[in-house]
Specification:
Layout: H1 2-21, H2 52-62, H3 126-135, H4 144-152, H5 155-165, H6 172-185, H7 192-197, H8 205-215, E1 244-245, H9 259-262, E2 271-272, H10 294-304, H11 313-316, H12 327-338
Antiparallel strand pairs: 1-2
Helix pairs in contact: 2-5, 2-6, 3-6, 8-12, 10-12
């Protein structure tokens, strides 16, 4: 009996010893292959190149609810893949049941963003932005110290930090770099419009007329030739602009916009100009979720712009006549906007929850 017991103890000791002696994973700097179609070559941060393991860690963290104080909310709670990584709520609801102050922006094609993050651009880098919602009392209401403590107690994470950054000691810095890598890996470039530009798809007559209206300039002197002039602020293949602007939603009394980040009175009411890619998937619209439909958005620019001291100059030109779009023009324009939807993006497993 004593011999059998000794054998059992020896076997258990050996098994425990083997577990203890298992080698730790090694850092793996294999570059992540970024696919971006015909979009311009991106400027990847020199100090945070995308790697397979870094993107993997960022993806895990993006979907990790333990980044919130009560373990109920992750980054993906307000940036949902099926909505092009945005939120269909006017204002996202945080862990205490309280709404945020602005509509959640789409976290797609961040590599082509060159003018700060958030609606007012208060974060210069994506890595800085990634940590702010975690600490915001209206959102995840957690401390970075607590997050790091939780991650440090989980071997799954310590091993992945080791693979990604060469250390099994998680830090807020590496947390931010991993989240930045994953978000920079989310690329939308496979819409019907992209296929049209590549010559592999044909727009319908209505979609093509909407495309012409989208890029045609406003011309009050020749109404028949006047367009919606959307391309003035949503240009190039990224369909955005590095500018901040007041688009005439008359929100100056409730939201000071970029002024909150700069303190410059010329920035009162100015907001980030966002991409129109996947716009049909990301209602409601504007920084305050003012409009629920694309029809409402187009009609705002067509007839609803309100003047203010910081109204964008190009929009100010239209206040007397509006864009002069007919009901058919509006319908055609919206048909074109739907061609900007990347159907593959919303089901791409590279961007979905790894859990």
């Amino acid at each position: 009996m004593r011999v059998q017991l000794s054998i059992v103890i020896a076997a258990a000791t050996l098994a425990f010893s083997c577990r203890k002696q298992q080698p730790l994973p090694e850092q793996d700097l294999t570059p992540y292959t970024l696919e971006y179609g015909a979009l311009p070559n991106p400027e990847v941060p020199l100090d945070n190149a995308l790697t397979v393991q870094g993107v993997k860690l960022g993806r895990m963290l993006f979907y990790e609810p333990r980044l919130s104080a009560d373990g109920s909310m992750s980054c993906s709670s307000c940036h949902r893949q099926q909505n092009a990584f945005s939120d269909t709520a006017q204002f996202s609801i945080g862990i205490h049941g309280l709404p945020g102050k602005r509509q959640a922006m789409s976290a797609v094609n961040m590599l082509w963003n060159k003018n700060g993050y958030f609606w007012d651009g208060r974060a210069e880098k994506l890595r800085e932005q990634s940590l702010m919602p975690i600490q915001d009392e209206l959102e995840m209401d957690e401390t970075l110290e607590s997050v790091i403590q939780k991650l440090s107690s989980d071997t799954m994470y310590t091993n992945q930090f080791l693979r990604a950054f060469g250390t099994d000691q998680p830090s807020a810095h590496h947390l931010s770099l991993a989240l930045e890598q994953f978000m920079n890996s989310i690329v939308s470039h496979r819409s019907k419009y992209d296929q049209f530009l590549a010559g592999t798809a044909t727009l319908t007559e209505q979609e093509d007329r909407g495309r012409e209206l989208f890029f045609a300039e406003y011309n009050p002197f020749f109404p028949d030739e006047s367009g919606a002039d959307c391309g003035h602020c949503h240009s190039g293949k990224t369909l955005d602009s590095p500018t901040y602007m007041n688009n005439g939603t008359d929100s100056l009394n409730t939201d000071l916009g970029r002024f909150e980040a700069t303190g410059d009175s010329a920035d009162i009411g100015l907001m980030k100009t966002v991409t129109l890619r996947n716009i049909a998937l990301t209602p409601p619209y504007m920084h305050d979720g003012l409009f629920n439909t694309l029809e409402e958005v187009v009609q705002h620019y067509n007839t609803g712009i309100q003047n203010s001291p910081t109204l964008d100059a190009a929009l100010a030109m239209t206040t007397q006549t509006g864009l002069m779009l007919s009901e058919q023009d509006v319908a055609d324009l919206i048909a074109f906007l739907h061609t900007l939807t990347d159907e593959e993006l919303v089901t791409d497993e590279r961007y979905s929850s790894p859990f």
